[in-house]
Amino acid sequence: MKDFEVTINEYLPLRDVVFQTLRRAILKGELEPGERLMEVALANKMGVSRTPIREAIRKLELEGLVIMIPRKGAEVASITEKDLTDVLEVRSSLEKLAIELAAERIADEDIERLKAACKDFEEALGDPDVTVGAEKDVAFHDVIYEATHNARLIQILNNLREQMYRYRLEYLKDPASHPQLVREHQELVEALSARNKEAASAVMQNHIYYQELAVIRKIQKQQDK
Amino acid sequence: MKDFEVTINEYLPLRDVVFQTLRRAILKGELEPGERLMEVALANKMGVSRTPIREAIRKLELEGLVIMIPRKGAEVASITEKDLTDVLEVRSSLEKLAIELAAERIADEDIERLKAACKDFEEALGDPDVTVGAEKDVAFHDVIYEATHNARLIQILNNLREQMYRYRLEYLKDPASHPQLVREHQELVEALSARNKEAASAVMQNHIYYQELAVIRKIQKQQDK
DNA sequence: TATTTGTACTGTGTATACAAAATAATAATA
DNA sequence: TATTATTATTTTGTATACACAGTACAAATA
Predict the structure, then answer these.
(1) Interface test with A, best of B79, B86, B148, B153 (most A CBs within 10 A)
(2) Which of A80, A99, A193, B134 has the most Cβ atoms closer than 10 angstroms to its Cβ?
(3) For position B111, what pLDDT does the model report?
């Protein structure tokens, strides 16, 4: 009867569908900061009742993506440059921790996965659609995250990364920077293969630093206009 | 009419009351890991309907304090030693970041607040009720957190600290360690006053280290029994 | 006896109903 | 005309209702 084991696994409560949808919309900027999230309107638009909407909002609230005004409802939290630099400050510190832990703990098979991910990224840069490259970049860094074997660290880093979702493409848009990115990835692979903590850390700090510059430049440009 | 401006401010939706209640109960261990959170039962016990209960559970879910089993409901997440060491690993890294940022950014008036908090803590250690000391310890470290002027960092650190809520008293229970704690606090005050990043960082790392030892000892003792 | 089928029951997932607060709009008054 | 009262309207906060999945247990069947 094996043939009928179709994966009907993908069960998701409506609240989680709504949660992910709203989350993505906020991070993409489709829902603008300050915009009110009105339950009935959203419910109608998404073809569900208020209940799943409200439960999704509870999660967004805890994540800080929406703020609640008592008896007035939820509105999209506005992200200031300060918010983002705060995130970047924490993130770069934790990225440093992650790469150091990874250098200590990475398993041999993960090194193989890392090499593959590195190659994938390089190839993806050829694609005119930058999102392809962005995805492969995420995948590469995910391998490093997982090599830390610290679930909590991974969770926080993923969250911080998502906070910057709408800027994630910035550092890939300029093809002139691609060779450097590839080189840094390769250096990371090398350093991790050699379990060289210091080298890996140094490369990573540089790697992150340029991404941050790109993001901050972008923010400031946005604010000017 | 000033006289009647009694702070009726403290409006809290039921969902948040429920959230805080459950959260505290889980962190204290009153709700045991693996225990099911059944909505009607909780609703009856707390004298509310299922709705606020469910919304509170959504937040607990995102925080990782409960895990959802599809169509079966929520149960209290079990915290393993691995979970806690993961938390500690991240926390000590971020405490290091925090103290360094604080050393760079602390304002003069915050140094005064810090000195006061330091004294409060010392006095509180005389109290036979260790929770008093714990509170003052939290207050002291809060001043340092705030001195970082990084809201996101503060939020994450507060969260990590709460994860260890049930172990927070361990390092205060042995009076023999009190002099060292006080000394370290004083050294932190000194280093921060002098804006000496390296010194502050060194003291903090030591300070955290011993707390971690106490917590880990406690966990292992719990697991043995 | 072992296995299946049916049935009742429990509890979640979602929708709807109702009450109270906030806001906007309109009428009334000085 | 400006300002206050009054009334609708909108929207949240909370409670309740209903449908369906999951489970346990008993009856039926081989």
Answers:
(1) B86
(2) A99
(3) 96
Helical ranges in chain B per DSSP H: 14-28, 39-46, 50-63, 81-105, 108-124, 130-147, 151-163, 170-173, 178-193, 197-224
A125 Cβ partners below 8 Å, 6+ apart?
A: A133, A172, A175, A178, A181, A182
Best of A16, A17, A93, A105 to mutate (most B CBs within 10 Å, chain B): A93
**Strand D: which residues have Cβ below 7 Å from it?**
A 36-41, 50-51, 54, 68, 70-74; B 13-15, 48-52, 70-72
Query: Is residue B6, in this structure, part of any structural domain at all?
Result: no
Q: Are residues B101 and B212 both part of a single domain? A: yes
pLDDT for position A110:
95
pTM of model > 0.85: yes
Question: What's the pLDDT score for residue A10?
Answer: 64
Q: What is the distance in angstroms between the Cα of B87 and the nearest Cα belonging to chain A? A: 6
- At A46, which helix (H) or strand (E)? helix A39-46
Judge whether A9 lies within some domain: no
Whether residue A27 lies inside any domain: the answer is yes
C-beta atoms surrounding A36 within 10 Å = 13
